[in-house]
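Quick one: co-fold with 4'-deoxy-4'-aminopyridoxal-5'-phosphate.
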Amino acid sequence: MKPEVEKIIDKDRKYVIHGWGYSSTIFVEGRGTIVKDLQGREYIDCMSGSAGPMSLGYANPRVLEAVRKQMTLPHVFHGYVNIPRVELAEKVARISPRGLTKSWFGCGGGDANETALKAAMKYTKKKEVISLYDAYHGMTIGLQALMQPRLREGLPIIPGFRQIPPAYCYRCYYGQDYPGCDYECARALETTIKHETYGDVAAFILEPIQGQAGHVYPPDQEYAKIVRETCEKYGIVVVADEVQTGFGRTGKMWACEYIGLKPDIITAGKIVGGGFPLSIAIMRDDIAENVFRGQDPMFWWHSLTHGGAPFACAIGSAVLDYMLEIGSMELAERMGEYFIRRCNELKNKHQIIGDVRGPGLYTALELVKDRETKEKATDEALKVVKNCFERGVIFGLSLQAGIGNVIKTKPPFTITQSEAKRAIDILDDALENAK
Ligand code: PMP
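Sure, here it is.
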């Protein structure tokens, strides 16, 4: 390692607090699907940065142009009307499920989810929240109470925040087989409401397709139907966390469409800022009106200094325009089919692959030591991902405790056929060497 590289790493260790995971690789530039490190090595980024922000590729000219244009007014106090925010909000309303017309803008997925839950609580005048096991919603103390207990060690439990099992058919929590299970996981929502809450449930928050949990999603649309009916019966707001899946990742604009879920609020992040901090909570007008009402200063209580900044919203608009122009959903579907086909071929070849999941350009391989026992091949998955990285392909690994055996890909929509082929060929080799 060159001495100047070592120096940066030393300073990093001394002064910087890292988040998830650690790697001493120093990336310095990117173009399209390719990122380059300080040593000049190139990588195909099959994760679009941190699971999505770079979905339009690095150095996207349209994003860069939007940044340059808006730089004379990057920020205004959020109380003012700001044109890029109005324009983006109108565009978001147009692409959102019917009835979801009003947007709140933040900086990250976590703050959008906090906003959604606050909105649900204010609207319903209730305080309890239900989420799914192994969910990932963000790193605030409130949201961590809805995620894995391991992630909130040392933090308080929020009274009234509870979790139910997701629709994880490959490892059904109820030991059932689909079909024929009568959607016990969906029905668990009502059982929990009846037997574990005080009848004070404001929101059910779910990722339509769980990202960090390893691409876990219901087998058909009946799950969403049961969940929706239950929420309507008990006056509960359905919050769909689409921070990973929104804006076309699954081949549909929203993964809610994929699983057939009718949400009251959708949250989005990652992709929407094209690499810049931007998130959205899109909700029904009547919910928004109860929470963020007009000019009354008493209702001006929910905002972030940088939330909805003109520069971020101008970028958001450019991202959305460009996505629609290039037909990103069709690209996600087409390239997604390629990834799934190749991954299924790998499954036929490598016994270590227990399950292949999509949808769209959102593929996951679950590795197992034995297909019968389904014992998780966690060390092997880490070895495969590391090996691919050393050979210039970035894949993701579910890092949450007890999961680590799911290899994930969510490359930019603009990944080329030859980049995709090269990435999967290297994965094939790495799986061969993982035995
Ligand atoms: N929801 C989901 C589904 C996510 O994957 C993430 C980030 N991994 C978040 C919320 C939190 O987003 P952020 O890190 O931008 O706060």
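If it helps, The first helix runs from residue 3 to 15.
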